[in-house]
Amino acid sequence: MCDTSTLDISAAAEAPSRRKAVPGKCIKCKAAKPNVAIRRIQYCRQCFVKASVTKFRMAVGKSRKRVAWPRTKVLIAFSGGPSSSAMLRLAADLQNMELKGTDAMPPFLGAVVGHIDESCLFPSCPESNICAIAANSGIQLETLALEHVFLPTEDHLALLELVQTALAPGAAKEQLCVRLSKPAKDASCAEQLQTLFSNLKSPTDKEDMLQAIKTALLVQLARNSGCGAILLGDSATRTAVKAMALTGRGRGFSLPLEVGAESQWFQDIVAIRPMRDFVAKEIAFFNRWTRQPSAFVPTFTTAEHRRASINRLTEAFIVELDQDFASTVPTVCRTLQKLETRPDALAAAPCLVCGMPAEPDAHTWRTRLTIDSNVPESTPDTSENDTFDITSCLCYSCQTMLRHTAPGAQLPGFCSSRLHAAAAGSSLVSENQDRLRKQIENFIISDSDSDDN
């Protein structure tokens, strides 16, 4: 059924004929015997690959028209998995296509492959294989390690240390208290990263924090490389799973930005998801028939049971349902296309942890609906000069994540940068806003003086 011979995908697919389908023949060429059936539509090997090329190019073209982003360099987010590997092959082919005619030109000024090294958390991650796959594309590779978020920079000389939490359902006031601190001098960035994840209680919380860190690093890579857009490899199957999981974690406020075909939440960077119309089966056959290699990327729930995390449970539910009802994933994705970002979400301040819009008064809404048997006996006092409340700066999901985090955990450096920007821009609404701004400024000044001495 599967012929593994290499195909040339440099030529764009020709327009299919409008003749009726011929029983037992490919839906496109009407001559060859079909090799695969995708959503009950049968393709031969060559027509399937050409159709995949056309689908990808149409997705990129539609995204450019919808958000009207200029012709610029793009960062191809590459994890090494099957979907990102297929996207890398398709994007490289699109960028290097032969110019035909006076108006033909590649859609991008240039391309950079961006990869986040996760070997600090997952030692079995095949980083050498991933880098080799990226190198074979002929596109420049830029890499950042996860522990890079703890490197001190001009933007974040201090870290936010979680002091105490008191998010009791029905309480008069909920608080997540932090203070500015410096990491231990004898602790490396890798040790700080591992300590952070050891303080997170559940695999779901760890997956949320990992996604927040990877998003921040990809945006940093794009800015450092002069890219105005990021291509993300979320397939249709992954998008359906992600939408259900995000909804279950209370991220509906930012859902259109996190699963949409395009997102302009980061003002100078446009996020594009051109693989959003490809189901996992299509990606598997495309990689096989074009001999595009991919790597196995471990996660926190690798080889775990289906209830290990919300993401794992949702994935098992969607995949098993799609096996019996082939329209499951397309139906979910078509429904997601109808979602629109609310105006108040676009105007909201970014969450300190995930960077997505933080819904105003999310903590108030949470206290009315959340049921929890672990009710703290007292509420922390934030009147001290070295602590302050960041509850209003967090989205609902990140409030839940930090609520179960052990006190003393130090958050990544970009959290303090976002807090400083919020305080400087007067977007932080709290009783101690002026004290917070002065404390951050004094901390940075005193820290710089100590370094000079």
From TrEMBL:
Please list every transmembrane segment annotated in the UniProt record, as residue ranges: none
Q: In which pathway does it act?
A: tRNA modification; 5-methoxycarbonylmethyl-2-thiouridine-tRNA biosynthesis
| UniProtKB keywords | Cytoplasm, tRNA processing
Compartments it resides in: Cytoplasm
User: What's a single GO BP term from this record?
Assistant: tRNA wobble position uridine thiolation
List cellular component terms (GO): cytosol
- Reading the lineage from the top rank, the first entry is Eukaryota
Q: Name one GO molecular function term.
A: sulfurtransferase activity
> What is one Pfam family matched by this protein?
CTU2
Coiled-coil regions listed: none
* Main function: Plays a central role in 2-thiolation of mcm(5)S(2)U at tRNA wobble positions of tRNA(Lys), tRNA(Glu) and tRNA(Gln). May act by forming a heterodimer with NCS6 that ligates sulfur from thiocarboxylated URM1 onto the uridine of tRNAs at wobble position. Prior mcm(5) tRNA modification by the elongator complex is required for 2-thiolation. May also be involved in protein urmylation.
Protein family according to the UniProt entry: Belongs to the CTU2/NCS2 family.
User: Under what name is this protein listed?
Assistant: Cytoplasmic tRNA 2-thiolation protein 2
